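User: Teach me something about this protein's shape.
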Amino acid sequence: MAQNLVPNPSFEELKQLPCNLIAVPAKFQTHINFWSLPSYGTADIFNTTTDPSCWAYPFGDSYFDMKIGTTSVGVQSPRTGNSMVGIAVYRPKTEYREYLQVRLRTPLEVGRFYKVSFWVAHASAVHFATNQLGFVLLKDSVQVHHAKVLKLPVDFAVKEVITTKFLDWKEISTIIEAKEEAQYLIIGNFSKDKQLAIQWIETPLHQAKETYLAQSAYYFIDDVSVTEYEEDEFAGFRQRKRLQIDSVVIPNK
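Assistant: First, the predicted structure itself:
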């Protein structure tokens, strides 16, 4: 089996258990190994072994919302292990975005093929779903001092609006040919609001209409991988003419 170049791919290696939502970007790295935030958009960490009274406990209704009080972005089980992260990829009329960044174990080799994959679950108590969730691969890390859209050359993004059934997960994956010795992977939505397809979703939780987080497109992320893909495998992949995955992914370049 090819080595996964992503360290801590399912977010299990924690420095300390999360409890509150991440409100300050620097706080993210005090909780988790290897992963960072490339902008001021504050991704969140959820864990099934944290105190059930905590916001970061993913099974209850005791999540804290900065404006409303106790509410929930939705109940969700990690796909594997005990941890997962969550990112807001759209909030109406704000261009607000959250991203995840990780340094790969080794740089990509130019001319080699790689499968890039991560799993997503749409939060069950938020009102919006969207498309264009994807990734970029870069030689250098990114650090900007805003929480808006990152203007980066996107490698791949999902064309369709991403929704999932309650507690289900959906894989986003594709094969890329390395054009440079990229060593950083960033996951998120790199498109402006006017370029997105937005879907309104009724939620079974009546509180969602009045919450801050519910007025966004919010997704849980788990099991991220970048693995080398043999050239003969890629030849067969191209002959199929489309990706045999749960979500169709298209290049944006």
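Now, about its shape. The radius of gyration is 17 Å. The chain has one domain: 25-250. If you'd like, I can walk through any region in more detail.
User: That's plenty for now, thanks!
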